[in-house]
Amino acid sequence: MLAALLCTGCGASDGAQTAVSMRTDMAPENGSYDMGGSNYSDSKLMEEADAVTNDGAGIQDDRKIIREVDLDIETREFEELMSALEIRVRELGGYVESMDTYNGSRYSDSRGMRSSNMTVRIPSEKTDIFLEDVAEAGNIVRRSVSTDDVTLSYVDMESRRNTLRTEQTRLLEFLDRAETVEDIITLEQRLSEVRYQLESMESQLRTIDNLVDYSTVHMSISEVKDLTPEAEPTVWQRISEGFLQSVENIRDGLTDFSVWFLVNIPYLIIWGILIAVLVVLVRKQHRKRRRKLEEQLRNPAPAPRGYQQNMPVQRNDGPERGNYVRTAEEADRTAEKGEHGE
Question: pTM (2 decimals)?
Fold first, then answer.
């Protein structure tokens, strides 16, 4: 009997109709359980399961739809828009779930544009009102809306939850009337399993209820100098806007250079001193080498002793013109012979 009851409890978690079928198949022929002298009619359990099924059917009239919106927003007045959005969210009964704001860097960009990523939760019935207010306060350049109908899943989960509650009540009644230790242990084990499943089911249902009751709106807000036009510009508008943009880019470039130059003056001074010292040292070394070379050219080094006497000479007169003489002594002797011969 107890085994039949536990099998019936396990089948109940798969849905009200499955629970009724298993209880009918596994019930004794007399249609009742007997524990401790008390009779528990199977028809009563079937009526309770039918009530659970009817309750689930009634929920289908109220559809469960999860709505999520993504927005890309441009604005010229960043702080005013952020403040207005936070105030409007509170007025509509919503709340800010997360926010990440970047305040910009004045040194990396002359304009120092700021941005923010914000996620807010708005009551579902007031989501359209909030979106209209955002469109009036800022320039929406991208909008994405997604919906998810979870009605069937919600009804199934709620039916299973109600079935688990019914099983928990029946287990508590049987536990009060249990007489043996074995029955008590078995019932308590099954009761723990049912309670765990029931808590998990209720947690999931609460999460779905929150997602259904409050729409999720993701907003990416950027501070810009010029808003993106809603209509496609004409050719002349594109030309004029492009020319003005070029002029602004030149102006911003000059401004950036001026800021960079003024900010980096200390570094420029240090680098200028180092370069000047290096140039002076190089020029000084170059002048030193040039003076040394000029002195060598003005004052050539004397030849070694005996070097000229042994140098070959060339005579350009007499019949030996063009002949080389090996030493100076031989040249002298040749000259003396020439004189005597004359």
Answer: 0.55
